[in-house]
Design brief:
The structure holds two protein chains of two kinds. Chain A is an alpha/beta fold. Chain A is 31% helix and 22% strand. Chain A has an eight-stranded mixed β-sheet, sandwiched between helices. By secondary structure, chain B is of the alpha/beta class. The chains are: A alpha/beta, B alpha/beta.
Chain lengths: 325, 328
């Protein structure tokens, strides 16, 4: 089955001083299908390799091993025209809405440049009309935005201007790397709704990278849980959240704070959860979660677990569920 | 109960090229002993500016045109009642860390990278108390244990610690001198969910242990729901609603609070479409006339455009400033 995007055994190794090496991403496989637009959420804490994966997909950082294929073409072996098309069809939204704008130019510029570059408009009026339409599509009032400098807009507005830019380009895939971690709660909901609308109305797929399980739940569909560079669990979002297998996934769900003063968990945390972060050096031939895991066994420190299928879509990488051991 | 801090009509303005930014514009708020008071609101609502005023860390171009911050505190049997805005810098210095501790946003990144954790903790204790170096040094292991860190962390450098561990060190320092009020500004925003949960529960435990009041500033409503006794909602430089957390979450009065609570995603029940709050956050150089929320408010009436609503007690201990609840 042809896929929109496919990661085949992708690894990224960073080399440090004194021969140190860190496998930031370890043999990651996943794909988005071509026929139906899809949203995949990648969830993990800092250091899980989320951003490295995003950068590799965007063509900004070649993988050390494995390949990334866009419409069955290796994105690091594209010719000039293919690359231009890839650049148009795969778009990014980054975490920091403050760092991506050039403070010397008005924000209109980020909308005008793609129009010019990809010849989206035939005249100046046409281009203005497109910009207005795009801003309205993401819930902004064009007169409040056009002609403004970046410092005059809030973080949420800036992130939405980036979405307006995506609306203009109508990409096939959006790679959104922690797009809502720096904007206000009230605006997060608007942002997530826009991504859902993009998928439902315009058929735009999305790889949504976050550390926040609740926004992944809101977007729904498919979920991949990463821990220190490895996919530890994947499946349908609903199923994983109601029936998690991996001890790390369970911990993540436990750490979700219910926004309800009558369901307090923080004030009564028992000692059954090992919450302390793991700063032990990283060992390739082990389960990376072993040091924090409440049910770790000897085998977990001896070799790396392989993925075990729970059912058609649900997969977990943990020796607890690996009968062969 | 007698409040430990009483903030009256606090205003903090910034003068800049685009005019006068009224970041904090008339805040009234009480802080009671041993309570956890949450302050919520979107960015730009003045949360951080307001609490930096409580410890008098307002630096030019910001200034405090008017207001009072009364501290009621029993020291050696005498009741001390002072206006923090009227005392000298030296007197204020004497209160910081000993009576009021402030954990600014991102302070875990302000640890000195070339000093061991131990030395930085000792520095704080020596600087703000008359303990000897030996005494200060002997306090370190217990302080670290109180925030669930191993005492051997004392000999490490900041880069050897994770974000959550650094934040714990900061909490240990803030509580080293048994303050009566601890102010924490977004203490867990940069941490991932698992460390967020453990750091917050530590912060809760240590404040309860030393009977300190905690003023917890965060935009994360789930954190308020989990920890705070009372919560104050700030919008456009003012407190628009304050009450017991259980009441505010169960029965929010102000339309802004309602919208804020409706925009939190949860993993319980069927996903429902979150609404969010449309419209733009107002600018502190040009707050809207009348009620500052009226341009974004679905219930706004004529009077909202004309006059600012007064704060009234609409439920027991539950205050709101909105014309929907009278206040005319």
């Amino acid at each position: 089955m042809p896929s929109l995007l496919e990661l085949k055994n992708v690894s990224k190794i960073f080399y440090g001083a004194k021969g140190r090496r860190v496998r930031a991403v370890d043999k990651v496989n996943f794909s988005l299908q071509k026929e139906e637009p899809q949203i995949i959420s990648l969830v993990g804490e800092s250091g899980s390799g989320k951003t490295t994966i995003a950068r590799m997909i965007l063509g900004l950082l070649p993988p050390t091993e494995g390949g990334i294929y866009y419409l069955d073409k290796d994105i690091y072996a594209m010719d000039k025209n293919e690359r231009k098309e890839f650049r148009r069809e795969v778009q990014a939204v980054f975490q920091d809405p403050y760092g991506i704008y050039n403070p010397f130019y008005r924000v209109d510029r980020v909308l005008e440049i793609p129009i010019k570059k990809f010849n989206l408009a035939t005249s100046k009026e046409d281009s203005q009309r497109l910009i207005t339409e795009a801003l309205e599509a993401v819930g902004l009032r064009p007169k409040d935005i056009i002609g403004k400098y970046p410092h005059q807009l809030s973080g949420g507005e800036r992130q939405r201007v980036m979405l307006a830019r995506l609306y203009l380009l109508k990409p096939k895939l959006i790679v959104a790397d922690e797009p809502i971690s720096m904007i206000d709660v009230a605006l997060r909901a608007l942002f997530l709704n826009i991504l859902l609308d993009f998928k439902n109305k315009y058929g735009i797929s999305c790889i949504f990278i976050t550390h926040d399980l609740s926004s992944a739940y809101y977007l729904g569909e498919n979920l991949i849980i990463l821990y220190k560079g490895r996919i530890v669990e994947r499946g349908k979002t609903n199923e994983i959240l109601t029936n998690p297998y991996h001890p790390y996934t369970k911990l993540l769900i436990k750490a979700l704070l219910p926004p309800d003063p009558e369901k307090r968990i923080l004030t009564s945390i028992g000692s059954d959860v090992r919450l302390n972060e793991d700063i032990a050096p990283y060992k390739e031939n082990s389960c990376h979660f072993a040091n924090r895991c409440p049910s770790s066994m000897d085998i977990c420190r001896e070799k790396a677990p392989v993925a075990v299928k729970i059912n058609e879509d649900h997969e977990v990488r943990c020796f607890l569920y690996d009968e062969k051991g | 109960m007698e409040e430990i801090l009483k903030i009256e009509n606090l205003k903090i303005y910034y003068r800049n090229v685009s005019g006068l930014a009224k970041a904090v514009d008339g805040v009234y708020l009480n802080v009671y002993p041993n309570e956890i008071l949450g302050i919520a609101g979107e960015s730009g609502s003045g949360k951080t500016t307001m609490i930096s005023g409580l410890v008098r860390l307002v630096k030019p171009p910001a200034y405090i045109p008017e207001g009072s911050i009364f501290l009621n505190y029993k020291r050696n049997g005498d009741l001390l009642k002072v206006d923090l805005l009227k005392i000298s810098e030296n007197e204020m210095r004497d209160f910081r860390w000993k009576i009021i501790s402030y954990i600014p946003q991102g302070s875990m990144n302000s640890l000195n990278p070339v000093l061991r954790i131990k030395d930085q903790m000792i520095d704080v204790i020596l600087e703000h108390s008359d303990r000897s170096r030996e005494e200060a040094e002997s306090m370190v292991p217990n302080l670290l244990r109180s925030v669930n860190l191993e005492p051997n962390v004392a000999d490490l450098y900041p880069h050897e610690l994770s974000g959550g561990m650094k934040q714990r060190v900061i909490i240990a320092m803030a509580l080293a001198l048994n303050p009566k009020v601890v102010i924490a500004d977004e203490p867990t925003t940069a941490l991932d969910v698992v460390s967020q949960m453990s750091v917050l529960s530590t912060l809760y435990q240590v404040c309860r242990k030393v009977n300190a009041s905690l003023i917890l500033v965060t935009h994360d409503m789930a954190v308020h729901a989990q920890l705070t006794d009372r919560v104050a909602i700030m919008y456009a430089g003012k407190i628009v609603e304050v009450g017991r957390t259980t009441e505010v979450f169960k029965k929010p009065f102000h339309p802004y609070t309602k919208a804020l609570l409706l925009s939190i995603p949860t993993i319980e029940g069927e996903p429902r479409r979150l609404e969010g709050i449309s419209g733009l956050a107002p600018s502190p150089t040009n707050w809207p006339r009348g009620c500052r929320f009226h341009p974004r408010c679905p219930y706004s009436k004529e009077v909202c455009k004309e006059r600012e609503p007064e704060m009234i007690e609409f439920g027991p201990g539950h205050y709101v400033s909105c014309f929907l609840y009278g206040g005319e």
